[in-house]
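Quick start: read one record
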Amino acid sequence: MLHFSKWKAFGILLAVLISIIVALPNVLPAAYQDKLRPYGLRPMTLGLDLQGGVNILLEIDRDDLKKRLTEQLVGDIRSNLREAKIGYNGINRGPEGVRVRITKPEDMDKAVPDLRKLAQPVEAGGLFGAGAATALFDVAVDGQQVNFTFNEKGIDNKIQQAVSQSIKIVEKRVNPDGVVEATIQQQGKDRIVVQLPGVQDSQEVKSRLDRTAKLTFQLTCEAQPTAPGQNPPPECKALPMKDDPKNILWIQTSSRATVDGADLTDARGSFDQSNQPVVSFRFNQKGAERFGKMTRDNVGKPFAIVLDDLVMSAPRINEPILGGSGQISGNFTVDETNSLAVVLRSGALPAKLSIVEERTVGPSLGSDSIKAGFNASIIGLILVVGFMIMSYGLFGIFANIALLVNLIMLIAVMSFFGFTMTLPGIAAIVLTMGMAVDSNVIIFERMREEWRNGRSAMSAIETGFKSAFATIFDSNFTALIAAVVLFGVGSGPVKGFAITHAIGILTTVFTAYTVTRFIVALWVGWAKPKEVPL
């Protein structure tokens, strides 16, 4: 048990040396930290509670999502019935769904199967990303009336999808260059927490988050308003022009008359031939084909470029646009085009996000937390070190060396993988120190027991390590299970504690058993002890 081959000894020393190098940036001045970043060496990321920043809580607007789904459904119903040449008296929409009445009873057999296809099944996210599909709408027939009623489970599934999609989009918006250590995660069923450590001005962040950035290319209606206050035709929607909000344009709402901007692959701020700021965009293959087909089938007709229910421009289609690229103009400033390009490039939010809570943590409060956490860690370390030396003498010193290696490895892992250190994380480090020496206590007490029972020094030391391993492994494994459960069901600070605690458990098993045993083996080989100094 106390014999280490040259390769094992070399591996242990190499692991300790690498840990020291990786953890080193945490104690260096900022100027040296910047020089080491190109080599992949960086300090631990400090959380919002340690360095200050912005905390924003977003919520999916359920009513807005229902409104969008209802609007799209109405357009699709009109388009389907007109294509099938089925007459209807009118379409009524309400908070719970849509009702349409078919004019002729003999058309019901043809209309109902087509309308049922518009129920829009939505898959629920299962354990591995798949789940049972549930329709957004329940379709019921009452005489000549077809009722589309929202299915609450289907809406829940749609919101679940919207949250997952929004998290990715929000991350791209608040961190387009990948240099901000942002924390973005789901809270509950329909909320998203955004934490930006080090950011003190939240206005720019809020401006990017507030925008739905729903970009569509929609054909305009043949009829257009001739006087203020006119209602649009049933299949149309009235939207204001960006340059002149009093100027209203009627656009078609059917999905067949719309190309969604979700298929954009790139958007950049640029300048047109008149040196005016514009946003240049490019579609992927799917979007380019749909955009090309719409422009090819509607040459000579105008179409509207709509962003968040505001018509940016309404050019006429003079020829098919088959290249999959174009420009959005609208009297933008340079800053507006750059900001708009960021939100378009990250994608459109599937639903409106409402800011329900906003907190700004000052850097002074964060520095106070760091100071308090640092003091707690130092006090805990001093007490643990003192206890081990008083209780176990020379072996206590060995345990303290292993404890120091344990803390270095913990910090190195946190730094290398970019985990965020929070105030609960500091508490997990203090807990790790106690658990680390606890493993050594088990080993040393078993050694002491074997020595008192008459074994030789070498036999007592070997038996102490050998017998204690199973106990150390079992106790740390059960603690690791608890940390994994905390990470799975917790959020925010709880996750930070769980991650740090789990890493601390893994480094503890390595250092408390392997490193301590290696140090003791070196001492035994040098001192050739005749008794156990415990």
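The longest strand covers residues 353-361.
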